[in-house]
Structure formats: structure tokens, C-alpha cells
Amino acid sequence: MIAERKDDHVRLAVEQQHGQGGRNQFDEVSFVHHALAGADRPEVSLRTRFAGIEWPVPLYINAMTGGSAKTGVINRDLAIAARETGVPIASGSMSAYFKDPSSADTFAVMRRENPDGFLMANVNATTNVDNARRAVGLLAADALQIHLNTVQETVMPEGDRSFASWVPRIEEIAAGVDVPVIVKEVGFGLSRETVALLGKLGVRVADVGGRGGTNFARIENGRRAGADYAYLDDWGQSTAACLLDSQESGIPLLASGGVRHPLDVARSLALGAAAVGASGGFLKILLDGGVPALVERITTWLDHLAGLMTALGARTPAELARCDVLVHGGLRDFCADRGIDTRRIAQRSGFLSTTDRTTRSTR
Ligand code: FNR
Fold first, then answer.
1. What number does the ligand 1 atom closest to the CA of 147 have?
2. Model pTM?
3. Phi then psi for 109, rounded to 5 degrees?
4. If DSSP states are collapsed to H, E and C, what string results for 62-99?
5. Beta strands 89-90 and 325-327: pairing type?
6. Domain range for 100
7. How many helices (H) and strands (E) does the chain have?
């Protein structure tokens, strides 16, 4: 049953991918163009540091799959692409492994193919500490993701209907495993209140997992005979909205959900993410063109990202978060209602004063 569901998720998620052309709320974020802000490309480093973690690049392949023969092959290929490009990677939910230990290799293959990479295990928020440790152990994982997915469970015909235990469970897991715990949504977003609570529970990093890309309300609705939950298609906060909402949240943020191209990566970093994840889009490229196509896509994204940073004068991902950014449309309304000062973000770089200093020092 679980194995079948995992295969359904892959098929329905891939059908949803519109490549770089689909629109989402990242389109309501733009950089103020400063024509003299540029840096020199050799000065630009993609290295990112957060919560005691250091990654060579601020891009990762986010959680997807495992648990069936077919998804084991996908995990193998994703892990090879991660190894070849140096990007961190997460496994899909390991519940299938807890229910059927014979599926272990559909996950463990990721570590075998990528022995030195940064690998994240993934569990749900009902997992007990022993199983959380088993998941980390099976992958020799460098971090543990816990996914939050109340809306997905609600639409899923066979989904959970009990969510109240999630808060104490997350606290137990965070205290009980010896790797950093990252809590993520699966595409409906984390509010600033949720991120603040996660910090209090001992969670080290929050992946906002916002709306705008793969939509698990639609995926689960597609698995229902009557497809009667179509009205939930727009539920949740976009990834850009979540990042703006949680600027002062206290724990480092990762961004995922609807990241379509390198500009969305740059926008996410500018809105405060320490790194940016993509799932469904990468999966479609892998299934259409195999490992070489995914390696090529990730390499191109990293090259373009460094190029955009050079033009913006951001030498590190953290410096991108000091660039002037404009917020438009519905996202601006969201910021107004949540008390987020968009004027400050539009004028924060102090670009002219920095230029003045540089001019004086080289005179
Ligand atoms: C996912 N996602 C996911 N997340 C998670 O934490 N555990 C999981 O098992 C899965 N399974 C899964 C399967 C498939 C086929 C896809 C495409 C995605 C959610 C994923 O990590 C991410 O949060 C969302 O897909 C949004 O990102 P994209 O796809 O818009 O880049």
C-alpha cells in the first residue's frame, strides 16, 4: 500500500511540473537594479553556513521518495546527481522503512552512491525517537528532516487525522537524536509563529516549504475517487511570503517550494534563506533525461546563481540578504497585514554609502 502510494506521488507530482514557465509568488519579488554594484566573479563564493552546518553551495535536492522498487532507483539516481554536483540531498519519508524493513535498501542506496555527501534522513512528526535514530543510522545521515503535512494528510484518503501530538514529538526527537533537526513543510508554508515555536522545541533549522510548486493537496485529491477537495488548491503561504514573515524568527531558514530557476534561488537567499531546495522540478528532469540531464541542470543553476550574485555585488549568499529588494502585488498586501516593513527591505543595502567609501579608499 505504501509502495503504491510512493509511486502515485511520483507520477502525480511529475504531471504537475511546468518547468520555468509557471507563475508563482516569487514573481512578486524583484531586485532593485544598481548598475554599478557589480563584483568580480572570482570574489564570489557560494559557500553557506548556518546552525553549525557548512555547505559548499546554497542549493539542495529536497525530500522526495523511497519505499518501492521504482523509487529506490530514483533515490539512487538523485544521490548520484548530488554526488556529481556536490549538492546536499534529503531522502523521502522513511515511514515505509519502519513498516517494512525490507525496503531499507531503497533509502540506503543514497549513502552507498554518495558516501561523502551531506545526506538528510526524513521522518514524519509521529515518529518515535527510536525510529528517528534508526532513520539517521540507516543513512549515516548528517541531519534529520521532520516533515509537517496536516493538509496533505487531510486530503489523503488513508491519511492521519490526529495532529495534536506533533509538538511534543518534535521536542522529543530534537532532544533524542545526535544530528541537527530540520523541520519542513511539504508545500503549504510555515508561519512565523510556527517557526518561533520550532525554535523553542530545540529544532535547529526551519525549511519553510511554501506554496507555489508541487502541490500535495492536488496530488492527494488526484488519488481520491471524487477529487472533491479541489477547493484547497490555493491553501497556505508562498515560499516568498514565509521568508518575509519569518525574518526575525530566531532560527536559520531554508527555502523550498516552487523554486523554478536560479533567479528564484537568488530571491530566496535575498529574503533570508541560508540555502534553497528543489524537488518536483528536479525529479521531472531526472525522469525525462536521466542523471546527465539533472547534473547539467544543477551545474547550470549554480553557474547562473554565481553570475547573478556577481552582477548584484553579493560576494556570499549572506550578502545577497543585504541587497535592495522590491515586493509587489499580493505579497505586498500580505506584508502590510503581517506588519512587515517592505520599505526597509527596498532600501537596506546602503549602496551609495558603500560606494562612497570604496571611492575614497582607492583615491
Ligand atoms: C515530496 N515531498 C516530500 N517531503 C517530505 O518531507 N517527505 C516526503 O516523503 C516527500 N515526498 C515527496 C514526493 C514527491 C514526488 C515530491 C515531488 C515531493 C515534498 C518536497 O520535499 C517539497 O517540500 C515540495 O515538493 C515542494 O517543493 P517543489 O517540488 O515545489 O520544489
1. 6
2. 0.97
3. -55, -25
4. CCCCCCCHHHHHHHHHHHHHHHHHCCCEECCCCHHHHH
5. unpaired
6. 2-362
7. 16, 12
CA 62 to centroid of ligand 1, rounded, Å: 7
- In short, whether 260's Cβ falls inside 6 Å of ligand 1 is no
For ligand 1, pick from 8, 186, 211, 223 the residue to mutate: most ligand atoms within 8 Å of CB: 186
85 Cβ closer than 6 Å to some ligand 1 atom = no
Spacing, Cα 160 to ligand 1 middle (Å) = 18
* 147 C-beta closer than 6 A to ligand 1: yes
Residue 76: give its domain's CATH number: 3.20.20.70
Q: What is the mean pLDDT of the chain?
A: 96
pLDDT at position 339, please? 98
- The count of domains in the chain is 1
Report the separation in Å between the CA atom of 270 and the middle of ligand 1, taken as the mean of its atom positions.
23
Q: Which atom of ligand 1 is nearest to the CA of 66?
A: 9
Dihedral angle sign, alpha carbons of residues 93, 94, 99, 104: positive
What confidence tens digit (pLDDT) does each residue in 234-281 have?
Answer: 999 999 999 999 999 889 999 999 999 999 999 999 999 999 999 999
5, 9, 64, 208: which to mutate for ligand 1, most atoms within 8 A of CB?
A: 64
If you average pLDDT over residues 170-178, what whole number do you get? Answer: 98
Q: How far is CA 301 from CA 241, 261, 304, 308, in A?
A: 23, 7, 5, 10
Cell numbers 493538509 correspond to 151
Dihedral angle, C-alpha 316, 49, 46, 112, nearest 10 °: 180
